[in-house]
Amino acid sequence: MKIPTLFIRIILCACLFILAGCNGSGGSSESGSPSGSGNLSLYLTDVSSDEYQAVYVTIDEVSVHRGDAPDGEAPDGWQVVAAPGRTYNLLDLVNGAMEKLGTSQLDTGVYTQMRLMLKDAPDDGDNLLGQMHPYPNYIIDKQDGIHELKVPSGYQTGIKLVHSFEIISGQTADLVLDFDASKSVVQAGKSGNYNLKPTIKVIGTVDNGKVAGTVTDEDNRALAGVNVSAQISDPDALNPADRVVIATSTLTDENGHYSMYLEPGTYFIVAYKGAETDFGTAFGPECTQFAVNLDSTYTADFQMTPVLTGRIIANVQTSDEIVRLSVRQNADCGTGESSIETTSLSVSEAGEYDIRLPGRDGESMPYTVVAVTGEQTVSVTVNVSAGEDSQVAVNF
Q1: What pLDDT was estimated at residue 394?
Q2: How far apart are CA 65 and CA 78, in angstroms?
Q3: What integer pLDDT is reported at residue 7 of this predicted model?
Q4: 32 or 175, greater pLDDT
Q5: How many CB atoms lie within 10 A of CB 101?
Q6: Distance (Å, rounded) from C-alpha 124 to C-alpha 109?
Q7: Is 6 within the bounds of a domain?
Q8: Which of 56, 77, 202, 329 could potentially form a cystine with 163 if both were Cys, beta carbons 3.0 to 4.6 Å apart?
Q9: 261 and 152: one domain?
């Protein structure tokens, strides 16, 4: 039987229509989601602090927001990608150590924001003193004292992090949440209270360079707990706060060893161990300079001599703004004198704050205190002598 040509054409057109509707590659769905999916893996690490034995935070979940997320795909365009519900000691996550928060599958596309939610109750684990966690967020000081970290609004609104990343079909994107404990813990005057003002940097995985080494004393004994930081110098910056920037930092372990991963650039590597007591003994600071390249390893060892300390008594006047005090000095890091940060402190209330610093017997050691709030910068010069107090006023 002869089949009419018109009938054959109708059948062919119908088949092509069905195939086009079934083919999911190369197009967008009706909801507007791009085709395909990839994975996002999230990790947690810390920029170290030598002021405390432990800094505990409890992370409930992390969400991401796609820039072109259509309405109705997820509440307000946010999608949960990790829900650890765990209490972490940030000071365990130094020297390149990382804790995995979770891995999630995401639609392909560009994501523009992240949101970290803190939990209002700790997990059922123990802290380094062998005790159950008393609070979801707290510190343990050098004398085994436990202090709760108050979170003004973190439980309700979360901590938004602006960072763009792309999910590519069939691939995994790795992101690291770099939690800066030294900047996140804020002293609230002489009350003994502390606030948690999370300072977090999102780092994409690249073939970073690595700087590692060992810190010893003058008798070649390993020095543990030395703060080693990578600092970026820009002496021509208009704002004094921007003339020294801390890219990252870590603490030496019991063998005096440290390691840091750094993006390509030129850094001052600075080692300093502060005094444990007023007018006690500090080590350093010592420094050297490196130009770090991709996928390269560098060694920077330090041998440090003890030095007696004096104190700065900083009288800070502020109207409940968080003030970061960056204490700087001039040092020769191999390329002539440059400004480096020796130590720093964050405070949230007006009052007097003690800062221990290396001094000199019989003569003064000049320092610059750069105090920064969200909108203002104040720079004050002060001289420090061993065994003595020096007063400085910081007014906003």
Answers
A1: 86
A2: 5
A3: 42
A4: 175
A5: 23
A6: 38
A7: no
A8: 202
A9: no
Report d(CA 121, CA 38) in Å as an integer.
32
Beta bridge partners of 157: none
Regarding whether 158 and 82 lie in a shared domain, the answer is yes
Q: How far apart are CA 92 and CA 12, in angstroms?
A: 66
The amino acid occupying position 333 is C
| Encoded amino acid at 253, one letter | D
Please report whether residue 24 resides in a domain. no
Q: For the chain, how many structural domains are there in total?
A: 2
Domain boundary among 148, 169, 204: 204
Of 293, 338, 324, the closest CA to residue 396 belongs to 324
Q: Cα separations (Å) of 149 from 111, 155, 282, 321, 389?
A: 31, 12, 28, 17, 30
CA-only gyration radius of the chain, Å: 26
The reply to whether 242 and 348 lie within a common domain is yes
Pair (189, 218) in one structural domain: no
- Domain for residue 9, yes or no? no
Judge whether 380 lies within some domain. yes
Q: Same structural domain for residues 269 and 167?
A: no
Contact 78, 64 (CB under 8 A): yes
Q: Residue 221: count other Cβ atoms within 10 Å of its Cβ.
A: 8
* 3, 11 contact by CB (below 8 A): no
Token code pair at residue 152: 């003004």
pLDDT at position 303 over 90:
yes
pLDDT in tens, 236-264: 999 999 999 998 888 898 999 998 888 88
How far is Cα 278 from Cα 301, in angstroms, rounded to an integer?
28
Say if residues 51 and 62 touch (Cβ distance below 8 Å): no
Quick one: 194 and 228 in the same domain?
no
Q: pTM (2 decimals)?
A: 0.73
Is-cis flag, bond preceding 285, omega within 30?
Answer: yes
Least confident of 60-64, 126-130, 370-374: 370-374
Parent domain of 361 = 209-395
Least confident of 28-37, 119-128, 224-233, 321-330: 28-37
CA 78, CA 270: separation in Å to the nearest integer?
Answer: 40
Q: What is the pLDDT of residues 270-302, one digit of tens each?
A: 999 999 899 999 999 999 999 998 888 999 999
The answer to whether residues 328 and 343 touch, using CB atoms and an 8 Å cutoff, is no
